[in-house]
Structure formats: structure tokens, C-alpha cells
Amino acid sequence: MKPIEGRKRVIIEDVKPQVDCGRYPAKRVLGDAVTVTAAVFGDGHDHVTGRLLYRHSSEKDWRSTPLSPLTNDLWSASFIADALGDWVYTLEAWVDHFDTWSDDLRKRLAAQPGQPGVSASAEPQDIPLALRSGALLLEQTATRAKGPDSKRLADQAARLLKLAKAKSDTYDYPLTDEIVALVAQYPDLTLETRYPQELHLWVDRERARYSTWYELFPRSTSPDPARHGTFADVQALLPTIAAMGFDVLYLPPIHPIGKAFRKGPNNSVTSTEDDPGSPWAIGAKEGGHKSIHAPLGTLRDFDALVAAAREHGMELALDIAYQCSPDHPWVAEHPDWFNIRPDGSIQYAENPPKKYQDIYPLNFESPDWRGLWEALRDVFLYWILRDVKIFRVDNPHTKALPFWEWCIGEIHKKYPDVIFLAEAFTRPHVMYSLAKAGFSQSYTYFTWRNTRDELRVYFEEITKPPVTDFFHPNLWPNTPDILHATLQNGGRPAFMQRVILAATLGANYGIYGPAYELGENIPAKPGSEEYLNSEKYQIRQWDRSASHSIAPLITRLNQIRRDNPALQSDGSLHFHNVDNSSILCYSKWSGQNQILVAINLDPTQEQAGWIDLDLKELAIPHNETFDIEDLLTGTHYQWHDRSNYVALRPDVMPAHIFRLLRKPNVETPLTP
Amino acid sequence: MKPIEGRKRVIIEDVKPQVDCGRYPAKRVLGDAVTVTAAVFGDGHDHVTGRLLYRHSSEKDWRSTPLSPLTNDLWSASFIADALGDWVYTLEAWVDHFDTWSDDLRKRLAAQPGQPGVSASAEPQDIPLALRSGALLLEQTATRAKGPDSKRLADQAARLLKLAKAKSDTYDYPLTDEIVALVAQYPDLTLETRYPQELHLWVDRERARYSTWYELFPRSTSPDPARHGTFADVQALLPTIAAMGFDVLYLPPIHPIGKAFRKGPNNSVTSTEDDPGSPWAIGAKEGGHKSIHAPLGTLRDFDALVAAAREHGMELALDIAYQCSPDHPWVAEHPDWFNIRPDGSIQYAENPPKKYQDIYPLNFESPDWRGLWEALRDVFLYWILRDVKIFRVDNPHTKALPFWEWCIGEIHKKYPDVIFLAEAFTRPHVMYSLAKAGFSQSYTYFTWRNTRDELRVYFEEITKPPVTDFFHPNLWPNTPDILHATLQNGGRPAFMQRVILAATLGANYGIYGPAYELGENIPAKPGSEEYLNSEKYQIRQWDRSASHSIAPLITRLNQIRRDNPALQSDGSLHFHNVDNSSILCYSKWSGQNQILVAINLDPTQEQAGWIDLDLKELAIPHNETFDIEDLLTGTHYQWHDRSNYVALRPDVMPAHIFRLLRKPNVETPLTP
């Protein structure tokens, strides 16, 4: 079957960014220059041109910007994402007969007999006829133009006709740049090709891409060992945490803790009246996901903590874990939201032969899935109304993926500034699918990537398109669930190494403290990644002033991150080769700001080696001498050309974080 | 907005093959096993399963085959493309509650107190309850099943209930493999996810992927220098060409040649009455694209040639060039199919300052584009009815791309066995776009890829997905338009090298003869790729029996191609490193057939070096000694492990084409 209009000769394909053929939005953050590229071409030698159409979804009319040619039929155009939320973009392109004519005419003019390099007896170039063709195109443009522009174009058409009749020996290009630009304002779109899809772009606030998280258990913040910590105790710690440079303070679930099958210390199946239980066993007779565990304080205390955090330049992030203790009010109110066993009992969490009788998972195949979805969404909305705008979602990969797409979509419609961090440690497709469904940030495999090659391969995957179009990694050297063997065995140097890696490889990173800065490293048992005497099941006391604390290093790292835009996004990450496999070297940049990190991955001894800098990536000319400053120590060095030597003692300082000090007029790379 | 059914928990994505998000069909050839892969996964730990749905577009009902798991949530299934033409495929997948239950039950059984490795005092595993869950699933399956199957399933459900009630100390897995397989026949599809797209697959006959072309000018086939060659003369040559192993005989345009602005020898703008003109200046008062140039013979002679070629195992391919001489009947009948200049004249071909006054291009923006499209399609249909099933299309990139998609689609609907070769030497996107639009084979940049690195990079691009899903390369070491400097300067060894490369790198290849086998290598002028005294503008005499002819080599190459399935497709091409950059080494395989080529690219002197075989690609164990046979000479060698030495004299034989002689029980790779 023929198309309705077969004369649309331009093809638009390979449009980027584009996530899963446009099934999901691409992601950017507020203020980003969004660059769209596409292959745009037609048949033959006619010139093509086109434009990017874009609008915030709240706008009715398209905005547009012309496409610029790159190489090999690729074109690009950019716009600034100057509002949060959902944007739409597409492209249109067409054969540009005027530009084709203009270019041909210039070639004819250059080939006129007697022109430089052209014999006086050369073939004439039919220029009067070409001028008449141009006049025709100008007349057509005039009919599309408005007001005085129309008259100007018609006048130029008349001028070209007059020139054509005048018969001259040689001709000059007859139009001014202004007229050429004017013609471009009134293209003939009759036969334009419109890209068939309207692609979506989701714009988050900057904290989705650049954030620094500190997790703590409020229960352990009391200065009095005999007393359960409270929101007020946390509030008292805010100046300390803010001074370390964190901007997100994240609390494990704050809801009433179930009593049925409550776990004792070290995940014991027996517990006493005094054991506080796991905050992830959510719900008791006092309430569920919209209630506060009474020992922590009141809703008013909570509001005060949220407000105080903001005053310290921090935001409070809540942990939302969609699972219920057997005591959760939903169990009685909505038994159909759970799996019912043949004996009528509710199915607890199981991974045969393991049983988790203190936890009831929700059933996303419930006949009342609509009611369940709404209730879960309403939990977020409840806390959003209390000014919480960041949520860390526990095990989102055990809840139906279509639920997340709907739930986050619903919330984002009204609150585009809400950030969701997916705590999913599962298979790659599932992790990526959660990010596509709407999660703003994602936990990663960073914890289990420790060697040079493991780190390099993994970070090359997660910091480049297509992954970066939908996935913002958030790196955690530890969590209450994960104390990696590297930390168990590597001592203080390992804690320094892993936090330096997290803070510089990832624009988003976080630590679970004060376990981290105090070097807590005893596992529950050999081979386990669980902490001994984990705060998940008991209250702990911490001596934040201990002399072995690496809080000063963390404070310095966070200051370096604030001062250096290069470390506030991940797309520019580039690895440089080193002749010692225990040293990892990488750079990041943003505008003129360039950071180069060299880190010894071995916690046991000094490692030294020659770095082979990729000078092109750093925009450093060959054979140049340049100044660098180690931002951890303030020491300046002069480096020369590509090969430079480093020696790093893990017990002193396992890394250099260099800022390149360059002349401002040196050519620098584009913004990633 | 919520989906209509929010309980569809399975995601299907990343389906391959898929060309431009399903905008174009993927391509395979008749008899291929078409393997479809996809990422299929859901939330949590529930098992998923699914199937591939496929049908020839002439069939109403889907056929289906179950998906098999690969790694990391990837699944695949295959079907045999056992008919030419348009196929459709998609996938469906669902949570498999029965399989999840079955797997859980096995874990419970293994964890029963007293089982191997399990203490007698271990926690009981609630097996009776699990059996009741299984009975429920079997009952549900029974309601979906038909006839006796339904009863069998219901009986099993009852059996499980009875076992559950009996209370035993230990239990065994209660179902036979037959019952498990029976359950799989009646899946619960209520909550299945269907991939939203139905993807298309185009199935060509095998010659689209494996063909051997010989191009000649019929005008030059007369044994009498005083006489214009005829179809009858060509017919007389068929045994010779067939004996060389070619299966496609391709003729430049056979239509009446225009007289207006006829070109003389060497593209001279002046010509005499005796000059035959260029066959690409199509159309005279005797007729256009459906007529035959009278000096070649009659339509009956043509029919006889087509039939005789088939008798020799060859097919005739016609060159269809959509452009007109000023004498073409269409010029008078349909002036609106051409560009009209402001003075009322028809625009001839131009690339300012160059003029091609003997050629009028067609105007694909004609108001009568519908009439034009139909006329062009009808040219193909006319020759198809004369039993021509292969067309080489001249400069398709200067005709509107949407036209090709429609035209080839229309023809393929009725004649799926027609093969179109695109003669486009233009930018990559345009070349690929023609293949996506429907061209079965494509000319390539092979002619301009001569060094080891040029060849390797280019062939790694065009022989791997995504390109192989829509693009079948056809390699030409020369054409009447292209005599590359490598041939001009390299003498006989260069002609040997380039044809060996073409015949072994490309399952489709062709030569323009007898210029090729006779080593014709004088350019029209220095720096030009045109032949001196080109047959395009004059009749030539050739001495096919000349002793320097490389026809014997070409004959041997074509025989090797026929005997070795490895050389009949391109997807298995793999390069092996050599420590001498003048030697290129690569392998291809199909089933048990393995071919390894080592070729000296230097026409001037012997080159020798150590090949570093990729043993894994060749499925050769480390440290093995294996036999290889050089199919060009019949010589046998014993090679050992990965490092093996070759020395190649270009004047004698620039290449080895080895067949690996392996024990049949050695593990061999899968079919590409």
C-alpha cells in the first residue's frame, strides 16, 4: 500500500536519547543541556535540514531549535531542561530546496569562466537560469512569510529576476546573509518527515544525580546508654553530620515494630521484652506505615527533625519497606492483600528451607490489587505532606514492577521533586528495570567490585549510555546488611580506600555510620556479610570522638566533592592505565574542572607505578608540563606528558585526588 | 492511570532480532533456524516461563515453542523459517506458579529432618501444607485441561491431598515427569504478559546470502570484431562462465540507448554514428526500460538466454537504472516525472560545475508520484514475467527511499523469490537504509578497504548484528566504474589477492569480467578509478584464453566455496592475530566445516609471520596437534596449538585457504 504522501523523502532514525525504543523516559537533571542526536538523510544530493521539537508536558506548543550537522548524516540539537518533570521531544526534517539551490549557485559562480583557476573559455554555468530558479523559491517563501518579511522576500525574488535578465559576464552571490537567514525562518514543511514517536524525558532535581548520604539508627543516638534514642537525639547530632558534609540523612523505618516472632540480638529467633526488634518488621497494634514507633518520639518531634535538617542543608530520607509484621493493622483489615495458605493462615516470607515468620510479604496478585496499590502510594503521599522528599525503598524488586511505574508516576505528577532510591541487590535486568520504571537512584554492585578490573568493567558499564540515560548509581561501601570481606579483613586502610572510591567514582554515595567511620568490621560469623551485634536487632553505643575515626577524611572528601563540579556527575568518568594492577586511576571533568584520582587498592602495603595518562581525554597537549594539586593534602606537583609516577601508602593515605591546574585558555573538553 | 490488569508481573524486553525497534523486518534465508532472544523476568523469586509465538504471515494461527533460559534473565527459542516471505513473531511470558511450587517443594524435601546433611532435630518443613498448595494448583490446571488430561490432573490433585492427610515422617517428590510436563501444557495465561509488538522477519531464498556473480558486456561478446555482440553470443559463452563456477550472470542495461548527447569513447562529449553509447543512457524512440536494444537481439533471443542460463545452473541478473536519456519515451509522455527548469526545459543531471546532458533524472517530488512509482514497479514486473528473478539496481540512493520500501514490498508480496542488489556507494546510513527498505544484497566499501586494519574493522562491522540482521554484503574487487589503485599498481598478484579476499570474506561476491581475470588495469588517467577505453562507451575484444588469465584460480575458488558451507554465509567470520601487518588471517565455519584463510596483502614481495590462532573460536583444545589441508594446492600440514607459521609469495599464491581436518567427536561451535 502506498503512503498517503510518498514525496516525504527524508528518513529520521537512531534518535538518542531513547530508552527501550521510547518505552521509558530518558532522564536528566534540572538545568542540563539535553542534546538529542539522530541520523537524518534523504536520497541523492539534495540538502536536508530539520529541527528538534520539545516542550515541557505542561506546555501546549512545541518549542523548536534547528538541527546542526555532525558527521556522517548525524545531526544534533540541544535544549535546556529548565523545569522539573515530564518533557516531550521529537524531530522533523525536510529536503531544503533553497539551501540546495544556494550551494549549487555558489559552485556555479566559482566555476564561471575567468574565475580563479577557471579558464576563460570554460563552459558557461547557466547562471541566469539558476537565478530564475532562486527567484521562484523566494517567491514561494514569500507566500509562506508574514507581514514585512513577505514583502522583503518578494522584493528579493524580483531582484533575482532582474539580475537574470540583465545578462552579465560574471555574477556574485546575490543574497545577503540576512536574507538567507530569513528564508530559513519560513521553510516549506509540506513534505516534511516527522519522527513517528514523541519521546519522553524525565527531569529530576540535581540531588537525584549528586547526593551524599548518611544512614544512622535513631535508636542508637541517645547519649544515655540506658535510654532508647529519639528524633530529638538525632536532631542534636545534625550539626556534627552536616559538618561532615552530608546532605541526605537517611533513617531506617521509623514505624511501630511488630511483636509477633520478634527477632532478638544477632537475628535470634527468641527475644525478650527488652529487645527492640527489627525496624523492618513493620506494624503493630499502634499502627503501620503511616505511624511512628513511639520510643522515637511524636509526629511533632519528627516534623521538628525534618525542619532542623533543612536548616542544616540536609534532607531527611525515609526507608519505606513494603512488608508487614503479623501485627500490622493491614493484616486484619485487608487479609486479601497477603497470600493465604490452604489452611487459611497467611503466608510468611520463606526461601525454603529458610523461614521469616516475622514478615508477611504483600501479594501483588491480590484480587484487590487496586486497593493495595493505592494504599502503598498513600504511604508515600502521607510522608511527602510532612515534607519528606527522599525515599529509600527497601527491596523494591520483590514488588511488582508495573506497580512501581504507576506509583512513582502518580507521585511525580504532583511532586516531581521527590527522589526514590531503589535498594535492590539483584540481577542486572531487574535493577535496570526498576530505574526505568521511575526510581531516581539505585544501589549498585559497587560493594562487590574490589579489584581494578572489576571496578573498571563495572563502572564503564554504569556510567555510559544507554545505562546513564535511566540509571543513577548510588555507591555504598557498607550498609546495615552488608559488611564486605574487604572491610572485615583490610582494617582502617580498607575503610579509607572504599570511601574514597565511593565518593569519587559516584556522584551519589552514602555510608552507614557511625559504623563506617569508626571502622566496625566484625562479622556475625565467618563468611557472613552481616555485622556482629547488628543495630538491626539491638541498640548500640558509638564513640564518635574515637581517635581512629576516619570522619576527618570523609569530611575532606565531601568538601572536595562540593568544590569540584567534576565529581558531581558520572558521565565523564574515564580510566587511565597504570602498570601496577593494584592501582586504579581515573578522571572526571565538568567544564574547566578536572579531577584525577589514583588509588592504591591494596590495604596491606605501599604500591607504586607509572600512570599512562590518556592525554586526549584530559585535553593536555603532548609533551606539556602541567601543575596538579592533591586536594587531600594540598601538595602541588608538576607532571609532564603522559607517563607519571605515584607511590601510595595505604596506612597513610591510599589515594591522590588531584585537581589539574591548567591555563584557562587551554582547549577543554565539552560538558559530558 | 492504572493499567487494566495490574497483576501482569512479567517484563519482556530487549527482543532480538529487531531492526530499528521493529520498524523494519529482520532478514534470514530459507531453512535458517531463527533464534529469538529476550530478557524475561518478574519481581521476587517466582519462576517465570514463556514461549515464542511465530507464524508465516499467510497463516492465521500462531505456532509456538517454549523459551529456554540462557543466563542472567535472557531466554531464547528458535524456529525453522521453512517458507519464503514475511513472518511474524512475538513472545508471551507469565509467572509459573506451578514450577515455583515444585522447586520450593524439592527444597523443602531436601531439608526434611534426617535428610543427608540435615539434623534429625531440624525444623519441620510443613510439607503437608505444601502438598495441599500443589493440589490446588493441579485442580486449577485440571479445569483448563481438556478430556482425559483433565481427569488425570484432577486425580493427581486428589492424590496430593491424600498424601497430605496421611502424615508421614518423610516425603518424596510426589509427581512423575509426565505429570509435570502435562501441567506445562495447560499454563494459566490469565496474567500473561504479551510483548506489545509483532515483529517481522523477511525470509529470502538462499541465493540472497550466497551467490557468485559474473558481469559482462554483451556488446563485447562477439567473436567477430566487426560485429556487435548479441544475446546469442552470450549464450555461447555460458558453458565457459558456468565452468568457472558462477551462478549469477549479470548484464548492464539491455535497453535502447539514447542518441541525444551520446558519449563517445572514454566518456568523450562528442561521438560518431559508430559509437555504441553508454547502456546507462536509457531510452530511445524504439522504447525504454521494457524494450531491448536492437543490436543485442530480440525478446525471443533474450528468453532463450534466460532459459539457457538456468540450464547451466545460472540465473540472469538485469541492471535496472532508473534514469532516462532525452530520447526516452517517458520524456514526451510524462514530462511531469522530471524536473522542469524555469525556461520550460527538462533538468539534466548536474553536479555543478559538471553536466550530464545525456541523462535526465526522475523527479520523486513529481505531483504524479503515484503514476511514476507504478511505472517503475511495472518495469520489474515486466522482466519478472520473463523469468528474471535477480536485479542489480543502479544508484538506488538517488531515488526516494520510501519508494523502494513500497516497490520491493509490492513485488515481494507476489514474488518473494526476487533478489535485489543495491548498487549504492554512498554514506553508511543511506546504504543501510536501502537494505532495511528491502534490498536483498548491497555493494560495499570492500573495494576501498585494502590494509589489514581497514579490512578487519569494516568486516567486523558488516558481519555482526545488528548489521547482519538486515544487510547482506556483496563484494566486488572491480566494477566497470571502479578500477582501484591497488589493482592499477599491484599487477597480477593484486588481482589474485583481491579475488581471494572477495570470495572468502563474502558469501556473495562478483567480478566484472573478463577485465578482471585478464588483469585489465590501465586507468583512464592517473588518479582516476575509471578504466581506459571502458566498455561503458565502446566495444572491446577480449582474449579469454590468454595465458596470464587468473580464470583457473577463480574456478578453484568457486569450487571451494561450493564444497565448503563455511564460506556460504558471513556471520561466523572471525579474525586471528598475525605478527605481520601484511598478513590477514580469518576463519569461518558452519556446522563441522571450518575454513581458515591466511593471505599476504602485499603484492610486491613474500611476507611471513606467526599466526596466533584463537583456539576457542576454532574449538581446538590447547596443545593439540591437528591436520589442515590447503584447498588451493591440496597440500596437508600438521599444525600445533595456537602459534603457527606461514610464508606467502604473492607471485606464486598469495594465500592459504585451509580446511581444518578434525576428529568428528571434537566439540564444535554452534551454527552462526
UniProtKB/TrEMBL annotation, chains A, B:
It comes from the Bacteria. It catalyses: alpha-maltose 1-phosphate + [(1->4)-alpha-D-glucosyl](n) = [(1->4)-alpha-D-glucosyl](n+2) + phosphate. Signal peptide: none annotated. The record marks D481 as: Transition state stabilizer. The active site is at D394 (nucleophile), E423 (proton donor). Residues 211-561 form the Glycosyl hydrolase family 13 catalytic domain. Keywords: Carbohydrate metabolism, Glycosyltransferase, Transferase. Alpha-maltose 1-phosphate binds at K263, Q323, D358, N395, K536, Y537. Homodimer. This is Alpha-1,4-glucan:maltose-1-phosphate maltosyltransferase. It comes from Tunturiibacter empetritectus.
